[in-house]
């Protein structure tokens, strides 16, 4: 049995157990459902007879929240703690999501959130939006749950699935003496079902016999990749109609999606994943050493980077490579103090443009990048250099061995070794360390005019800071110098294209050289615009191919009726 | 403007349009408290950087505190007594001795609390003029900080008084408020180095309830410039502080465009690195925020400095240090205590009536031609202002632009 199947089995059992209702669920390969759907869209439908489950990708917190807001409205509160998805080494969280399990404690959190959401959906202020009937009977429960299930599970529920939830609602309504309480429980069960918590990818053979994602799996991938939320009604209808397997129609749909304002959410999620923004959650700095760092600054740092990214790539349709050179960014009052620049608005964000030649230009000069790749009490040329190589150039750097002596590097108050350059030079006399530090430190030392939170400085311990750096054989000065090298590097757009493909498919693209090359070419042809990159990534026929071993035909998940 | 971001000098947003004034003075380290007095005129100016292009500098006021010459020499009889002690001194010695016994503390407390109240529901702090108390012992030292407000002798609307000499040698210092109240324990402190009033003022400024900013326009030189416009205003914005309570430099503030509570436009000059302004009425916010059962948070009063003026010295570290001086209506001086009402008297033990008597005795300005009594008193506050960015949304002609000017990166 594959990992996906095992996960599905475990969660199916957990979901039913949490709901407290016995049920029988056949996931994916059930029989055809009776036509109970609204006239405009099928509420229940059979899965394609030959569909196979080929992967399961857990929803991120942002995707979960966006889905709830899209399906039920933004006023429905989601209160709870999300168990994080572990990032595999040198990969994206999008890849980790494919392998993400849930602990019992994490599932309890999802259950609590589900019950809270369901209670709000069927409270007096909301139920009229979701309950299309008056008589409190099974037909009404069916009419209520079928469209919600379709939106939450991103495909029509099978008849068996819907029947099980209707029975669940009826049993709970009887026990609680409330029709709405029954609906609540059934909805909560849907929300802790792995069909909701995971994007279940199903595939069918194409004309050549190769497995490709099926219609509804395509809709989910399109929507979660490009808009970071659940498929819209229009996209589900396109899936129902088979449009997502028609190259021309698919091209038109993707074009429309990348031109939509909602593409910003997808771009934000992609860059947050690519640049390891989860590190911001644990970002802490010594307040005595860095008085300009506070909670407002910590919150603004990632947002500044994302605003810069989306403004440049989406609002201005900018060249990806220019992200490392752009003078434009956004400021808040809190950030203004750190940057020592004026901010007119007392609250919120306002655009800001650095002077030509300012070393702040580009993402590498932004406080968020510089602070994230620093230590709590000092800057770190090593972390910064490693981040540049790994995140922007896709050049993995090995982890340090476990027995490293960091004394020389950490002794920042040593007047005999006043600057990071001097300390790291001393550290590199250790042969065990020098191999990797030669890859990272010459890059990061060029950013040393920014301290551990990204504030500007020219001296350290009274000694002048030398901002000279070296990337491979190319010398540079400061963040702007490094930005120019990154922008001119062939590796940067290749890395971005490779990451985009990994983000789309949820698995590393190391074995997809030809597809990455095609993406890079499309990227270049589009002037290195992000829309062109994702347009190609979502429409290339090979991108829909799945190479994972499918479930066996006779595999199914069932929860036996008592 | 330069592209070199590490240049250490006064920096200014270059071609700022409209009324958006942005300035960041040089910074060579973290801000620190004012511990030195304003340099006497005539001494050599420290090395100062060139003014920024555009000639606009801005600051946020970190310290706005009563200037106290340290030590107990000024108060040879000790600090002023608390109301409890003042009440006891109204009694025969034998009765004082009896009430001072520990077992009679409860009775004494009841009595001196009653001493703070009037028969008509008044109390000694809300209606201090209804109580006739003797003034406090004054500061007896010749040394005091402040400004020479009257040129060495009182004018026709002033009253005769002794003048201080500053510890740095400035003659003719007028600060009768210090003389009247400088021996109060809240001002002097238990060791002569400053009391709770100084700490409290710092906290009020840190809270952002009455943040003050100073904007200098048309500055051609930090050493000598005969014509400088000075905006001394309040902002609703709260300062950013470090873990030691010091204001951070280079933070942005806005002088409110919809309800500018106080925006004083002054004319001044710079001579030998010292900025002085012409006498003018200056009004600044004074919001008292103490809580408690009688919560007076948000009660607003004002600092009024009649014939007020600034004397501020440019420092090599980019800060401004010096004084504001002027004549304050005597009731303004005890506004805080008055707003606190009976609590000021029976909890803090402050005798507001004695304060008022002292202020009346030493008042030296605003002489009432009918009574011959002076109604205002010379006063001074020590100022430390650190570099900041200030967006002044109130145009020079009094109109309010709809939008601030677009950003420009200042040279750094």
How does this structure look, described?
The complex is a heterodimer of chains A (about 550) and B (about 400). Helices cover about 50% and strands about 5% of the residues of chain A. Chain A is mainly alpha-helical. Chain A has three domains: about 35-215, no CATH class; about 275-490, no CATH class; about 490-545. Chain A contains 24 helices and nine strands. Chain A has a three-stranded antiparallel beta sheet with strand order 1-2-3. In chain A, strands 4-5 form a two-stranded antiparallel ribbon. By secondary structure, chain B is of the alpha+beta class. In chain B, about 20% of the residues lie in helices and about 25% in strands. Chain B has helices spanning about 85-90, 95-100, 105-115, 175-180, 185-190, 195-205, 330-335, 335-340, 340-345, 350-360, and strands spanning about 10, 25, 55-65, 210-215, 225-235, 250-255, 265-270, 275, 280-290, 300-315, 320-330, 365, 375-390. In chain B, strand 12 (about 365) and strand 13 form a beta hairpin. Chain B is globular, with a radius of gyration of 23 Å. The chains are: A mainly alpha (about 550), B alpha+beta (about 400). The interface of A and B includes residues 336, 344, 352 and 356 of A.
């Amino acid at each position: 049995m594959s990992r996906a199947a095992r996960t599905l089995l475990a969660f199916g059992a957990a979901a039913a157990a949490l709901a407290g209702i016995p049920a029988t669920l056949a996931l994916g390969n059930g029989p055809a459902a009776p036509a109970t759907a609204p006239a405009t869209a099928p509420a229940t439908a059979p899965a394609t007879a030959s569909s196979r489950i080929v992967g399961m990708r857990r929803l991120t917190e942002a995707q979960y929240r966006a889905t709830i807001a899209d399906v039920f409205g933004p006023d429905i509160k989601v209160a709870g703690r999300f168990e994080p998805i572990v990032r595999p080494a040198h990969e994206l969280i999008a890849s980790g999501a494919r392998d993400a399990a849930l602990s019992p404690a994490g599932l309890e959190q999802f259950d609590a959130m589900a019950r809270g959401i369901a209670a709000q959906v069927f409270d007096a202020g909301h139920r009229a939006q979701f309950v299309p009937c008056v008589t409190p009977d099974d037909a009404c429960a069916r009419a209520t749950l079928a469209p919600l299930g379709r939106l939450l599970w991103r495909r029509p529920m099978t008849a068996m699935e819907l029947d099980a939830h209707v029975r669940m609602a009826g049993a709970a309504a009887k026990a609680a003496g409330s029709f709405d309480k029954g609906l609540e429980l059934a909805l909560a069960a849907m929300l802790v079902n792995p069909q909701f918590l995971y994007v279940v990818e199903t595939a069918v053979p194409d004309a050549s016999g190769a497995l490709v994602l099926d219609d509804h799996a395509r809709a989910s991938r399109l929507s979660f990749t490009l808009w970071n939320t659940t498929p819209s009604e229009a996209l589900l209808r396109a899936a129902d109609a088979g449009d997502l397997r028609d190259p021309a129609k698919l091209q038109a749909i993707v074009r429309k999606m990348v031109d939509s304002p909602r593409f910003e959410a997808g771009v934000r999620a992609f860059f947050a994943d690519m640049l390891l923004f989860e590190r911001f959650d644990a970002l802490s700095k010594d307040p005595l050493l860095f008085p300009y760092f506070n909670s407002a600054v910590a919150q603004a740092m990632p947002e500044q980077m994302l605003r810069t990214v989306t403004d440049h790539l989406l609002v201005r349709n900018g060249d990806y490579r220019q992200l490392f050179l752009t003078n434009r960014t956004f400021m808040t009052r809190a950030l203004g103090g750190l940057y020592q620049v004026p901010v007119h608005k007392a609250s919120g964000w306002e655009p800001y443009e650095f002077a030509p030649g300012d070393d702040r230009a580009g993402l590498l000069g932004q406080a968020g990048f510089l602070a994230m790749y620093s230590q709590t009490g000092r800057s770190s040329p090593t972390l910064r250099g490693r981040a540049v190589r790994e995140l922007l150039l896709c050049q993995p750097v090995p982890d340090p061995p476990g027995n490293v002596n960091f004394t020389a590097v950490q002794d920042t108050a040593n007047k005999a070794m006043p600057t990071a350059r001097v300390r790291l030079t001393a550290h590199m006399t250790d042969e065990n360390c020098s191999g990797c530090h030669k890859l990272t430190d010459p890059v990061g030392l060029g950013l040393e005019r920014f301290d551990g939170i990204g504030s500007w400085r020219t001296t350290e311990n009274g000694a002048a800071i030398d901002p000279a750096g070296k990337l491979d054989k190319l010398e540079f000065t400061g963040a702007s110098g490094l930005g120019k090298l990154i922008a001119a590097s062939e590796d940067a757009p290749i890395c971005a294209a490779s990451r985009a493909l990994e983000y789309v498919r949820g698995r590393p693209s190391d074995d997809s050289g030809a597809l990455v090359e095609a993406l890079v070419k499309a990227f270049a042809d589009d002037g290195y615009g992000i829309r062109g990159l994702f347009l190609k990534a979502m429409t290339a026929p090979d991108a829909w191919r799945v190479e994972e071993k499918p479930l066996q035909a006779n595999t199914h998940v069932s929860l036996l009726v008592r | 403007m330069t592209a070199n971001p590490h240049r250490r000098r006064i920096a200014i947003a270059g071609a700022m349009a409209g009324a958006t004034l942005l300035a960041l003075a040089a910074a060579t380290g973290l801000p620190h408290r004012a511990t030195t007095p304003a340099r006497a005129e005539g001494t050599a100016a420290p090395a100062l950087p060139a003014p920024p292009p555009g000639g606009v500098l801005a600051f946020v006021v970190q310290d706005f505190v009563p200037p106290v010459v340290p030590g107990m020499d000024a108060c040879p009889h000790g600090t002023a007594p608390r109301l409890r002690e003042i009440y006891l001194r109204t009694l025969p010695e034998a009765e004082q001795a009896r009430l001072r016994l520990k077992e009679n503390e409860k009775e004494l407390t009841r009595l001196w609390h009653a001493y703070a109240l009037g028969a008509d529901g008044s109390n000694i702090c809300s209606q201090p003029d209804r109580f006739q108390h003797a003034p406090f012992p004054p500061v007896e030292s010749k040394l005091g900080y402040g400004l020479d407000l009257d040129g060495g002798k009182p004018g026709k609307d002033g009253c005769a008084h002794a003048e201080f000499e500053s510890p740095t040698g400035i003659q003719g210092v007028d600060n009768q408020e210090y003389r009247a109240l400088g021996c109060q324990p809240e001002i002097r402190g238990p060791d002569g180095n400053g009391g709770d009033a100084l700490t409290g003022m710092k906290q009020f400024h840190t809270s952002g309830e009455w943040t003050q900013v100073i904007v200098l326009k048309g500055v051609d030189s930090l050493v000598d410039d005969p014509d400088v416009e000075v905006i001394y205003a309040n902002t609703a914005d709260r300062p950013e502080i470090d873990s030691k309570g010091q204001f951070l430099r280079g933070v942005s503030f806005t002088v409110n465009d919809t309800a500018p509570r106080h925006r004083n436009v002054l004319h001044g000059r710079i001579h030998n690195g010292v900025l002085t302004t012409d006498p003018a009425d200056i009004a600044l916010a004074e919001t008292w925020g103490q809580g408690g059962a009688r919560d007076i948070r948000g009660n607003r009063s004002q600092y009024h400095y009649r014939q007020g003026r600034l004397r501020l010295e440019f420092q090599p570290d980019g800060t401004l240090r010096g004084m504001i001086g002027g004549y304050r209506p005597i009731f303004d001086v005890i506004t805080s205590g008055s707003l606190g009402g009976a609590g000021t008297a029976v909890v803090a033990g402050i005798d507001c009536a004695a304060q008022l008597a002292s202020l009346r005795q030493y008042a030296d300005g605003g002489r009432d031609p009918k009574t011959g009594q002076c109604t205002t008193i010379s006063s001074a506050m020590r100022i430390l202002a650190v570099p900041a960015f200030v967006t002044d949304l109130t145009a020079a002609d009094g109109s309010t632009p709809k939008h601030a000017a677009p950003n420009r990166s200042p040279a750094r």
